[in-house]
Amino acid sequence: MTQEKMSPLRARMIEDMRIRGLAETTQKAHIRALKDFTAFLGRSPDTATPDELRVY
């Protein structure tokens, strides 16, 4: 994904993981999980409620 198409939330998540020194495979796993959660919600994950997190 190019920087032009990347959401600010995803860019921040990637940067935070890089700063923390997470391995590339770990970063990919976190991104994959977030993509699955986003598909479940049908909208940006930063709008999720605690109840939606529990259901997921």
Précis, in short:
This protein has 56 residues and is mostly helical. The protein has three helices and no strands.
Describe the structure.
The chain has 56 residues and is mostly helical. The chain is globular, with a radius of gyration of 12 Å. The protein has helices at 8-19, 24-41, 50-55. The longest helix has 18 residues, at 24-41. The chain has one domain.
Low-confidence stretches: none
Q: Compute the gyration radius: what is it?
A: 12 Å
**Strand portion:** under 5%
Instruction: Determine the mean pLDDT.
Output: 91
The main sheet comes to: none
The secondary structure category is mainly alpha
- Described by the principal axes of the CA atoms, the overall outline is globular
Order of helices and strands: HHH
- Total number of helices: 3
| Number of structurally distinct domains | 1
- Count of β-strands: 0
Helical content, roughly?
55-70%
First CA to last CA: what distance?
A: 26 Å
